[in-house]
Specification:
Blueprint: E1 5-7, H1 9-15, H2 18-29, E2 42-46, E3 49-58, E4 61-69, E5 81-89, E6 95-100, H3 101-120, E7 127-131, H4 135-147, E8 152-156, H5 160-172, E9 176-180, H6 185-190, E10 194-197, E11 216-219, H7 232-237, E12 239-242, H8 245-248, H9 252-255, E13 270-271, H10 272-277, E14 288-291, H11 296-307
Parallel strand pairs: 1-6, 7-8, 7-10, 8-9, 10-11, 11-14, 12-13, 12-14
Antiparallel strand pairs: 2-3, 3-4, 4-5, 5-6
Length: about 300
């Protein structure tokens, strides 16, 4: 038996442009029932973090991501997220490829956000604000520039060195780039057409009253029900789209915005399948929110698309 291919971060980016990743996700979302059988994420606590297991099958492939989250790693100069993704032929269940799970996660998360933003954002959206300066922030700048004619990006970051690296990346994409510290986050998001929240924050990052009435906000930072990046006021007044209603049950941004008499599900306008099918009415004069927690079918779709191009 031939050994599975190893697809590292550099190979993944070289074979799969973001536009192709978005198109692959879009195609699967148009297939009835293709994503409905994905089991929920399994989380195992450890002494230094979490081990996450995310299996899925969409023939002709199946796959599983084993990824670890170690909050203390950055202080040691190590990545917070590590792991491996194994792609199988679904007919024989033979492993055909292995991926750097952190790289795959960054690509699929940003590609899903780009798919949603392309349908939610106003036609003239060209000003992006990114909160955070890690791998997800970098991926979101690239993915959103692939689907929208961005002109400028403002990076809101806690660490100046990380912000400067991200500014160089944005400049290499042809974007006008600047950075502000967290104390000036309101100034940055208040001028933006699109806001990408890519942090490990446990509480809202900004007062949503500063947002433009037609801004589009993406929040990808957490998958836990007691953690959020966005305040309740925004979720209650915005057009909110989630990956699926089941996954939204673990999204703190949604869960914590509920109140007596208002169920968390009532705050959601629809999911990605509804959005792609054109069943969500995006009202003018209201912010648009896409809340993502990550689902296993997304990893599988992106991994399969990359494998088919190697």
């Amino acid at each position: 038996m031939n050994a599975p291919l190893w697809i590292d971060e550099a190979t993944l980016h070289s074979v799969l442009p973001y536009a192709a990743a978005v198109a692959s996700l879009d195609e699967v979302l148009r297939q009835p029932g293709a994503t409905s059988g994905t089991p929920p994420r399994q989380i195992v606590g450890t002494a230094s973090g979490q081990v996450l297991l995310m299996p899925a099958e969409i023939p002709p492939f199946a796959g599983v991501k084993v990824v670890t989250v170690a909050p203390g790693n950055p202080a040691l100069g190590l990545p917070r997220v590590n792991g491996v993704y194994v792609l199988f032929d679904s007919a024989t269940l033979r492993p055909v490829a292995q991926f750097d799970a952190a790289a795959l996660t960054a690509v699929r998360t940003a590609a899903v956000s780009a798919l949603a933003v392309d349908r939610l954002a106003i036609p003239g959206a060209f000003k992006l604000a990114v909160i955070g300066a890690g791998p997800q922030a970098r991926a979101h700048i690239t993915s959103l520039a692939a689907v929208r004619p961005l002109q400028t990006v403002v990076v809101v970051a806690r660490t100046p060195g990380n912000a400067q690296a991200l500014l160089r990346h944005a400049s290499n994409l042809g974007l006008g780039a600047s950075a502000v510290d967290l104390e000036n986050v309101g100034q940055a998001v208040g001028r933006a057409d699109i806001v990408a929240c890519c942090t490990t924050a446990r509480d809202p990052l900004f007062d949503s009253n500063v947002l433009r009435s037609d801004a589009t906000i993406v929040a990808v930072g957490s998958h836990e029900p007691d953690v959020r990046e966005l305040d309740a006021a925004l979720i209650r007044r915005a057009t909110v789209v989630v990956e699926s209603r089941r996954s939204a049950e673990t999204a703190g941004d949604i869960v914590l915005a509920a109140s007596p008499g208002v169920d968390a599900g009532d705050l959601v306008a629809g999911d990605l399948i509804d959005l792609v099918a054109g069943r969500i009415v995006v009202e003018s004069g209201r912010p648009r929110v896409f809340k993502s927690v990550g689902e296993a079918w997304q990893d599988l779709v992106v991994a399969a698309a990359a494998y088919s191009r190697v």
